[in-house]
Amino acid sequence: MRPSPPPRWLEALVRWALPSGLSGDGAVGDLREAFDRKAQRSRVRALVWYSGQAASIVAYRAVRRPSDLTGGGSDVGMDLRWSARSIARRPAFTAAVVGILGLGLGANVAVFSVVDGTLANTSWWADSDRATAVWPDDRFSLGQLEMYAEQQDAYRSLGGYVELAFAVELPDGTSRSVSGVLMTSTLFSELAVQPVLGRGLVPDDGAFGAEPVVVLGDGVWRESFGADPDILGRRVTIGGRPATVVGIQGPSGRAPGGRTQLWAPIVPDPRDDDYWKASSYTVIGVRRDDADLGRAHDDLMAFTHTLSSLFPMFYPEGYAEGRAHVTRADEAQRRIVGTPLLLLLGGTAMLMLVTALNVGSMLLGRSLDRRGELAVRVSLGASRGRLVRQLLVEGFVLTGLALGVGLVAGALGSDWVTRLFVESPVVARSDVLSANVLAFAGVAAAGAWVLLNGVPVAHFLRQGRRGSAIARGRSSRAQRSLVTLQAALATLLIVSSALLVATVDNLRRVPLGFDPQDIVTVELSTPQDRVSSPTVARELYGRLLERVEAIPSVSAAGMTGWLPLRQDAPPTPINLRSAPVDPREAIRAPMHMVDPGFFATLGVDASEGRVLGSEEQSLDAPSAIVVNETLARMLWPNGSAVGQMIAIDPHAWDSWAPVVGVVPDVRSGAIDGPIGPALYVALAESPSRDVTLVLRASDDVPTLEGAVRRAIDDVDPLIPVRTVSGMEDVVRGAYSTAWVMMGLLTLLATLATGLGAVGIYAILAQHVARNRREIGVRLALGAEPTSVVLRVVHSGLTLALIGIGVGLLGALWSTRFLESLLVGVSALAPSAFVAPVLLLSAAAVVAAWIPAARAGRTPPAEVLKSE
Question: What is the model's pTM?
Fold first, then answer.
């Protein structure tokens, strides 16, 4: 077939723009040959391509010296402009590279933003190395706290706090529920963030008879008081009582608790009934310079021995052995989210590696397609170093564009990641434009730039001839190696994801004893004066339930002092009338305070006897107790629990109450493991200020929340609402670590699998394009199209299987790090290792089939004519 030259006027323009001499003539000849090859397929596309090349050369000649065109200049700005033109001529390729790399960077930025924000949100104490949580799994009363503070000598500062909600009266006369803490005044000075206006809490604020004061958080100050600086010294109503605003906490101060917006001092009163009884305070101490954790633990054990000697009925000798411990203060809140976030950061790093390898393979393939261009540059006198610099600058521009995409994707993704932690208020995200996140994104982008440019540049430098193009054979081997490594990394992520999917599935199947669907929980922190006596509290809660039950979508309502799966009920000793024991030797079981509507709302009915009813709501009614089936079997293995007389108050160890019913086991503690013993008594006997409404309703949570808040305001606007949550979210929060890990690792595994498939498709598509003549010859000699297709598919599947094998070997070692998160499934479960083989093999077959089918449909005559 006769050659198809470019238009003469266009070729003349190119010749004019290029340097004269042998190098210029060689470049014109190379461009003519490239045009001829492209014109055999489509002359229109060839004209568009040649016009772009001509325009680029002419524009470059117009703005730069002729020597610059040959590579004699050293201006990096010139390289950037050249790269920009080169990238603009290939918009589809540019979009693919920027999109894939931006996605990988975005995933890393999103997870790092949450890691950074969470670490900042859990760094509550100024001296984090010495701040110590004293027995973080237990709580102290004010009497115990003050006794311990006087006895210990390991801490320079020691105090306690309790998280509550407060009704804050706003300037317009309405009230707002605000999360806050009551805390020991001396402990406030140990917080990492201090007020930006006014002062914090000081020791005198906690003295009996001192004027009530409060420190407001930056958020509530701005949102509810218009950021008015004159609020300092002004009295505001908190929970129905006036308090003077003495300070405004810094914007990043939300500690302790992770969502605190109000701080008020604890004012101990030994005359208060709750001074010794209400064990609700978390204790924090800041150790002296010469005291380590061992000494702090010894102090704690000495204190527990003191309690055993003073109150043997409540604290049997040795009750704290093996249970009481001290730890760094930030460990208590970080351990819930630390492991999943760090593992996720590792998972996104693997995805980033897969992404960079994928893009590196694409750039290496593009380098093969640019052999003609590189040859032109060599013929024009470009040095070896200049071409390397050009390749690196092009990669730099692509990486910069991808970084912009990654920051946008990271901002969107970080919100999604934080929402996965449904029950973890300490989880937060940093702004993607913050210094830490930008620094991390820059380092990740720099690493990706080095990795994705390293392979094509290294292959270019390995060539023996000065300035020569990249060799096909070595590049193909390098591309296959990159695709194989992608498949191996994707296998690691899929195995981890499969194990966590099985774990979450097992946890979702754990019997709860009730159906959480359509149940909404509302946590209340009732002001102390609203429950000053059992009579007042019972009347208040009765009116509240009556008003809430009047909401049209609510079909049942009840109350509990301890919400299942969110709060652990305190254990109480049990004395049997038929077999009395010493309180120190008695069996203990969690005691739940509930009203009759609690069982009806959860859909729990008695398996024997009856549940608590309206007859237990009267204060002068005799006590009645309901036990769960586990406790019934434990105490009366050979008989009925109903009618048995037991005592549960160590103060009245022979005050007997009847067991009126047995209910099925309701899970209230950890989501995994067996359900332990439990007993239920009427909330009316000892109303608490902290109660939870449980409602069964047909509306969703956002819709119902507004109606519930209005109902509570109608009864008493000073009752603050801490949280409103769906019970399904509470259940999910009980296994949130596995849930979050499963969600994100599944996403990462899906992305890695997709990228691996893209890599296989790209390398095989390039292979088919470069071997069109060989394929055409085979078909012309009588080869069946099916055999050609199968050969290509076999190549792609072989790459994937080699990578899968390597990945499975790595997974055998790496999955042991997930063992602490797994429930009901082994880290070496065969099913988890079969999943990546099937998934990646299927992805490889699909990715290989597309170019293979195209090769099989190639008309031999057309191929042979075009060559």
Answer: 0.67
